[in-house]
Each structure stands twice: as C-alpha cells, then as structure tokens.
Specification:
Structural class: alpha/beta
Number of domains: 2
Number of strands: 10
CATH class of the largest domain: Alpha Beta
Bound molecules: S-adenosylmethionine
Strand content: 15-25%
Helix content: 40-55%
Strand order of the largest sheet: 6-2-1-7-8-10-9
CATH architecture of the largest domain: 3-Layer(aba) Sandwich
Largest sheet: 7 strands, mixed
Shape: globular
Number of helices: 11
Distance between the termini: 36 Å
C-alpha cells in the first residue's frame, strides 16, 4: 500500500451524497477519532463498496441505518467499519533515521543510566502498531544493542492497534518480502527464517519481547490499561486525527510516560500545539519529543 488512505479498493461503486458522507464521518469520528476531510468521499466509495454489496444495500443511507439499527450485528458492524476505515501501511525499519536516533540517543541514555543504577528495565509502547513491523523492529534493535546482556534485562514492548485484523497478522510473526523492503539484508538473515515463496518467519527470541493487544486511542479507559513507558512510538497514526483528538491522545501519552520519557511521532507530524507537555529536540534528520 502507498499514500494516505490508499488501498482496499473496489470498482463498481455506489455514490455517497454529501449528507450521507457527513453522517458516516461522524460515526467514524465518534468510534475512532479518525477524521475524514471533505475530499475523502472517494475513499469511502472505494473501500465500502464490497461491504454494501455483501449486505445487498443499495445506498449509503441504507448502510447508515444498518449501522444504527441492526441490533444483532451492531457491534460486529462497527468492527467491520474500523477495518475498512483504518490505513495500516507499515514496514520493518520504516524511517531508519528515526530508529538510529532511538538507538544512539534514547536507548544509549537508558543503558548508560542502568549502568549507574543497576536497574536493567525498559518499557516501550508502540501505539498504532499495525501488523507488528514497528514493535518487532524495536525488539530487533534491542537485541542488536544489548547482545547477550539482553537476558539480564526486563524488557516489555506493548503493541496496540484498533484493528483486529492487523493484530492477528502481528501475532503470527510471519511476513512477506514486501514487509522487509526497508530492512538491511544482514538483519533479515539474522532474525528471520526464509520459508520459501517470499515468506519470512520472525525468530522466537524477538517475537517473545512484544505483547500485542487491541486498544482504541479514543477511549481513555483503554489507554489507562497500558503500563507506564520509558518510550512511546506513535508514528503515522495521529495524522488521521483532528486537533481535539490529537490533544487528547497526546495528553494520555504525557500521563503514560515515566519521568524523562521520550515520544516518537511520524516524521511529518508536529506537536507544536502541546508545547506545555513535550519539548522537541532536533537530531540529524529527526525530532524527538521529551516529556516536560
Ligand atoms: C499507518 S499505520 C502506522 C503503523 C506504524 N506505526 C508505522 O508507522 O509504520 C496506522 C495505524 O493506526 C491504527 N489506528 C488508527 N486509529 C486508531 C485508534 N483510534 N486507536 C488505535 N489505533 C488506531 C490503524 O489501525 C493503523 O494500523
């Protein structure tokens, strides 16, 4: 997949009216905090066409009615809606300049600190982890940095997403070559078993560092369940939210982070509107945010 809201397409689409679009947008926003700009009608038409056809519905008004009134399948249909509306684009070692900063600054600082205090513990949260490539990449980076010493560390990488489908994929730890398109070849050789037919299986010692679970960043009670973290990765997720939702999510991240905690967002995402909570620090090619 490439680009914002791309993929999941289907031809032979029913047109959505402006009124229907606004109603559906509100339902999606209330459910997930994802906000669709006016120019996203085509995205809805493209992604929802197969679902309308499956339900034998002839208009978006009928689908909205189905969503609101269909007692038996109501929550199921909301899950279906979530699957259709989320964009799960990701890859192993995505945005390597950020990952180098994580390795050489954030992780180095945590390791140096542990040498002084003797406390060998690191807690990372990957919020909006999609099919697992991001948290597993972090687990590989920890293996590379700590080597055999890793056994002496208590490591927890908590990885969450709102989409059940991507979490199922993540839990399997089996990927195609496409997922590894931005991964250095020596890392592929070291941490994956080539199963043939372009299929690669992640090594169990990496896999066991990551715990997956479903959460909705729009629900404070879901977020409150996440253990406090030294580092949060939430890359290419808040880009889909409006300003109110961003503020809420970032306030929850601020609460979740331990003192001196670090936050990584996507390289095109700016946090200028929460200056009171996070201090930016410029590195070569990337900005990290530090809890105030
Ligand atoms: C584009 S992917 C980013 C994956 C990864 N962080 C990366 O940068 O490669 C965005 C992910 O955010 C998830 N997401 C969107 N809204 C969410 C919400 N309200 N709560 C939890 N996850 C959400 C989507 O399901 C999707 O898997």
């Amino acid at each position: 997949m490439s680009g914002l809201f791309s993929g999941k397409g289907f031809s032979g689409k029913i047109k959505i009216t402006q009124n229907e679009f606004v109603q559906l947008r509100d339902i999606i926003y209330e459910l997930s905090g994802i906000y669709l700009q006016d120019n996203r009608k085509f995205l809805i038409e493209n992604r929802f066409a197969p679902r309308l056809s499956e339900l034998n519905l002839k208009s978006y008004s009928a689908y909205i009615n189905y969503l609101k009134n269909h007692n038996k399948g109501k929550t199921e249909e909301l899950s279906m809606l979530t699957e259709l509306i989320t964009t799960n684009e990701t890859s192993f070692f995505r945005d390597n300049s950020q990952l180098k900063v994580f390795r050489n600054h954030t992780l180095k600082k945590i390791i140096d600190e542990s040498n002084k205090t003797g406390r060998r513990e690191i807690k990372i949260w990957s919020a909006g982890c999609s099919s697992g490539e991001e948290p597993y990449t972090l687990a590989i980076i920890l293996h590379e940095a700590l080597k055999d010493e890793i056994r002496k560390w208590r490591i927890s990488i908590t990885a969450n997403d709102i989409s059940t489908n991507v979490l199922k994929m993540a839990q399997k730890g089996i990927y195609t070559r496409h997922a590894l398109r931005t991964t250095p070849i020596h890392i592929v050789k070291k941490y994956f078993k080539d199963r043939g037919n372009e299929v690669f299986q992640l090594n169990p010692e990496v896999k066991r560092l990551v715990r997956f679970g479903k959460i909705n960043l729009n629900l404070d009670r879901d977020v409150a369940r996440i253990p406090k973290s030294n580092v949060i990765f939430c890359r290419n997720v808040i880009i889909y939210f409006d300003k109110n939702m961003k503020k809420k999510v970032l306030s929850n991240f601020h609460n979740n982070l331990l003192d001196n905690g670090h936050l990584y967002v996507g390289h095109s995402e700016s946090l200028h509107f929460v200056k009171d909570k996070f201090k930016p620090r410029q590195h070569a090619g990337t900005i990290t945010y530090h809890k105030i």
